[in-house]
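can u pls check wat happens w/ adenosine-5'-triphosphate
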Amino acid sequence: MKIGLFFGSFNPVHTGHMIIANYMASQTDINEVWLVVSPQNPLKPKVTLAKDYDRLHLVQLAIGGNPHLRASNVEFGLPKPSFTIDTLAFLKEKYPGREFALIMGGDNLATLYKWKNYEMILRDYEIYVYRRPEHALGGLENHPHVRLFEVPMLNISATYIRRCLSEGKSVQYLVPDAVFQYLEESTLYRASAGIPQLKKSPGQ
Ligand code: ATP
């Protein structure tokens, strides 16, 4: 059983994330994709980051009944800030029968050399990389454990979703429907969260 780990702050999860997760679970040899929600890093400012369990809940809503996707809070209980190599070691020990692989965008592959013990990650785990237009891959794409995929991309970010919400604009279709419904009835990411407003051009 091969599990693909897709790490992110998912603040909030959006359709761009779900397209990647579903592609990897349905069009590669990965059996399950776990969306691993990164906890608040105590060293980073938290002004725009929703609470860990709110973000996890939104990922659960996004997944709904899809049996090939799973929301993971594994890093909530690990020392912070979490390092991928430590999370992988923890998971390997907890689930000895499973094989873990990483899922990341080409932009992340390009900076992988900065990660703690990245040579060990590359040696011991496969990395499923989806190309991101306008981002160079950096050279590690030739490593035998790196597998490259062309996935149709949606050009949106969680930052954009948060800005829309803080301005009272609709994020329907940009996030899975259950996430949209939940956010409509919630104060998450609304203007009171202190998120900078999008600049308006003169005359608006
Ligand atoms: P933010 O705008 O807050 O930085 P984000 O949308 O980039 O957030 P993350 O939680 O950082 O979301 O994303 C998790 C992973 O998903 C990252 O590796 C990121 O590169 C990737 N990702 C983000 N947006 C997209 C997208 N539209 N399509 C594919 N991958 C994406």
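The chain has a mean pLDDT of 92.
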